[in-house]
Amino acid sequence: MMKPNGTDDDSLIHDWNDEDPAGFGEIQLVDETLRDGLQSPSALDPSLADKIELVHMMDRLGINAANIGLPGAGERARSHILELARTMKDLSITPNVACRTMIGDIEPAAEIQQQIGAPLEVCAFIGSSPIRFYTENWELERMVQLSSDAVAFAVKEDMPVMFVTEDTTRAKPETLRALYGAAIDAGASRLCVCDTCGHATPTGVRRLVKFVRELADERGADVEIDWHGHRDRGFGLINALVAIEAGASRIHGTALGVGERAGNTEMDMLLVNLGLVGWIDRDLTALGDYVKKASECIGIPFPDNYPVFGSDAFETATGVHAAAVVKAFRKGDSWLADRVYSGVPAAMVGLEQRILVGPMSGKSNVSWVLEKNGIEADEGTVARVLDFAKSSARNLTDAEVVEVARA
User: Fold this and answer.
1) 123 close to 32: Cβ distance less than 8 angstroms
2) Which residue range is the domain that position 216 belongs to?
3) Which residues, 6+ apart, have CB-to-CB distance to 158 below 8 Å?
4) The domain that contains 258 carries what CATH number?
């Protein structure tokens, strides 16, 4: 890759990451914001208009599919699913819905598919871990039969089927063989591996996804593997990347990582990191609008230090850091300024680096902010502003810097 001025960026940034996308097929993404995201105890259920706007934003970002709800959750859920699915007929993004492995749950989804006249993917889920079996008094033979019947019914209705084992990361191999085997035989086109409780480490993800891939290959099944992860242990994003390396071709996530308990893999962070390692190539300049809209309509604010989109992500008031960024700007090199103290280029997501003035600032900070606001940065003015900033307990706004400079 070359800088705009022709300099080879390898001479300026040695990348130990050295990610190689070779061997991967197309990486697809499923946005779960409007289903799993809304299971967050703090989330609001957005209006239909807000949901439609979010789906359009997902489509612009190149997200392949969106889970738009549970038809079995009631009339409001079904009416929203119907309208969202109709909207998506004219978009590239495709709809799917979550259903228990029960024909009664899948029937309303089949009716919606008939109404819209376009495919509606069924995500048929069933618990798979021994702790869940014990709690629910389930018998494996019964669960296998339910899975087989549900998948077969959906296939008979010409619906694409992803078979989902809940709590896969704590399930026994023989249980997964029985459940996935039944789903494959009944016609499922996708198998979803779920870290429902955020239990898995990257090592566990790698072993489990490879196990499921080998299981499907042993049966000669033409099925794809999905990964659905939670972040109870803080592993949501890294586990998603490891799942891709291990053979998952479609990854699930939510805006800002909202979801049950501590939430899900962050779709926005996933897109940024897939772009940075070169596994996808798409325009992410509208990604900030997506996370802001999701935060607004779901009612979950994100902290100032949230990566990339938090208000602090591309701001610095620290003297040494700011001086380097300012020097890059003064070279007339925005590419350099965007990387000299940032692991994520702000321009990649439609943002920019900002210099602030505060108690840890130096003269470079003050001069830069003054010049940006049309004030001559003479020695006396800079000293006056810097003295004021050093006595402050927080960073100053540009308006405050201007006010002190003109005092």
Assistant:
1) no
2) 22-298
3) 113, 119
4) 3.20.20.70
- Residue 268 contacts residue 290 (beta carbons within 8 Å): yes
Per-residue model confidence as pLDDT tens digits over 218-257: 999 999 999 999 999 999 999 999 999 999 999 999 999 9
209-226 pLDDT, tens digit per residue, is 999 999 999 999 999 999
**Confidence at residue 90, expressed as pLDDT on a 0 to 100 scale:** 96
Asked if residue 331 and residue 291 are part of one domain, the reply reads: no
Is residue 369 classed as helix, strand or coil in its secondary structure? helix
Residues facing residue 28 across a β-bridge: 250
- Alpha carbons 254 and 401: distance in angstroms, whole number: 39
**How far is the C-alpha of 112 from the C-alpha of 85, rounded, in Å?**
8
What's the structural domain count of the chain?
Answer: 2
pLDDT at position 24 is 72
pLDDT mean across residues, the chain: 94
For residue 185, which of 148, 223, 145 has the smallest C-alpha distance? 148
Residue 134, Cβ density class (10 Å: 0-12 exposed, 13-18 middle, ≥19 buried) = exposed
CA neighbor of 381 nearest in space, from 398, 358, 404: 404
Q: What is the pLDDT of residue 7?
A: 53
Q: What does the alpha-carbon distance between residue 58 and residue 96 come to, in Å, rounded to a whole number?
A: 14
Pairing of strands 224-229, 250-253: parallel
* Phi and psi torsions of 392, nearest 5°: -90, 155
pLDDT tens for 316-330 read 999 899 999 999 999
Are 265 and 397 in the same domain?
Answer: no
Interacting residues of 26 by C-beta distance below 8 A, sequence separation 6+: 249
Buried b (16+ CB within 10 A) or exposed e, 177-204: ebbbbbbbebbbbbbbbbbbbbbbeeeb
pLDDT average, residue stretch 244-273? 97
Rounded to an integer, what distance in angstroms lies between the CA atom of residue 398 and that of residue 357? 8
User: 85 and 234 share a domain?
Assistant: yes
Nearest to 292 by CA among 41, 30, 50: 50
Contact 19, 278 (CB under 8 A): yes
Tokens coding 406: 């003109």
